[in-house]
Amino acid sequence: MIMGNYYLYRCAYCVTRHLPLSASYALAIFLADCQYLLSKTDREAVQENLKLILKTNKVPSSMVRQVFRDFGKYLVDFFVMSKRVNKEFIKNSVEIKGMERLNDVLLKGKGGIILSAHLGNWEMAGSVLSLLGYPLSVVALAHKDQRVNAFFNSQREFFGTSVIQTNVALRSCLAHLKRNRLVAILGDRDFGHHGLKMDFLGKKAIIPNGAAYFSIKTGAPLILAFFLRAANDSFYIEFSEPIYPPKLEMGQVNNEEIEKLIKKYLPLMETQIRKTPSQWLVFRRVEVQ
After folding, report:
1. How far is it, in rounded angstroms, from Cα 56 to Cα 3?
2. Cβ pair 132, 239 in contact under 8 A
3. What span, in angstroms and rounded, lies between the C-alpha atoms of 9 and 230?
4. What is the CA radius of gyration of the chain?
5. 288 by DSSP, 3-state: which?
6. H runs (alpha helix) in the chain
7. Domain spans of the chain?
8. Helix, strand or coil, per DSSP, at residue 180
């Protein structure tokens, strides 16, 4: 579903930044509808995922199409966020709850891990937090094309967010947490094949274990947060109560403790995905292992 061509990204970036937001959204919806009609693989993957989320054998085609449309809007928001996101935007278009929980975590001096999913607009969440003055680092999957990678990272870094690429995440995340920073990680899809097999949305799937590992290793708590779109294209986010890890024994992190910690937050993630199914922007089936 996601374009991999650098020139297509640049073209979309230039077009959306010179159009009114409503026109950009309209264009994105048109292109999303085209993708929905033309890509059988993506369409069937989304349909199967929605069957799991909604616990049904039949999903309306309109709901499948809405996932494509929400993804189109997500891309528009990503392209224009360096132009659109400012203090006025946050005041008028973003409802934030639980910010005091982030403050309390940072006062403890061990940093914090913001755990999210491919849900809503996780990229814009980083811009909003950085603009509000929070010391934020985000773990991001590196694109094969270095030009695409540089382009995406320039958008992420515009407001001061630090980007940690997945190929250097281990040492970098530990170092950033030791500096009492917030490290944001997506915990719903494993792209490195180093996660744990767990129950997820009714199927066995490989779940990333990085967030739980870093939490146990450093003592930094986990805070769940999802930056979600409202019906009027405003946004809302709520930071959960911190989930504190067990104390590290003998300096070693084992898979048993990691799995126990993941089981504390994975159901919360599943619950939010079931509440806002069209905003779970995943175009691969939940893999059965």
Report:
1. 30
2. no
3. 26
4. 19
5. coil
6. 6-18, 21-38, 40-54, 61-84, 87-93, 99-107, 122-131, 146-157, 169-178, 210-218, 255-275
7. 86-279
8. coil
Q: Which two tokens stand for residue 132?
A: 């509000």
CB 288 within 8 A of CB 204: yes
SS3 253: coil
The structure tokens 């989320």 sit at: 53
CB 108 within 8 A of CB 242: no
Q: Which of 29, 58, 40, 88 is nearest to 283 (CA)?
A: 40
3-state secondary structure of 52: helix
Task: Say which amino acid occupies 27.
Answer: L
What residues contact 17, with CB distance under 8 A and at least 6 apart? 79, 80, 83
DSSP code, position 285: P
Count of other CB atoms within 10 angstroms of residue 72 = 24
Q: Is 26 exposed, middle or buried (0-12, 13-18, 19+ CB in 10 A)?
A: middle
Give the model's pLDDT for residue 4.
58
Rounded to whole angstroms, the Cα distance separating 144 from 43 reads: 24
Q: Half-sphere exposure of 80 toward its Cβ, with a 13 Å CA cutoff?
A: 21
| Per-residue model confidence (pLDDT) at position 7 | 79
Candidates 186, 177, 259; CA nearest to 219 is: 177
Q: What is the mean pLDDT of each run of 10 residues along the chain (289 residues)?
A: 69 92 95 95 96 95 97 96 95 97 96 98 97 96 88 94 89 96 95 84 93 95 98 97 90 90 97 97 81
Q: Which two tokens stand for residue 100?
A: 């005091």
One-character DSSP codes across 26-39: HHHHHHHHHHHHH-
CB atoms closer than 10 angstroms to residue 247: 8
Distance (Å, whole) CA 152 – CA 140: 10
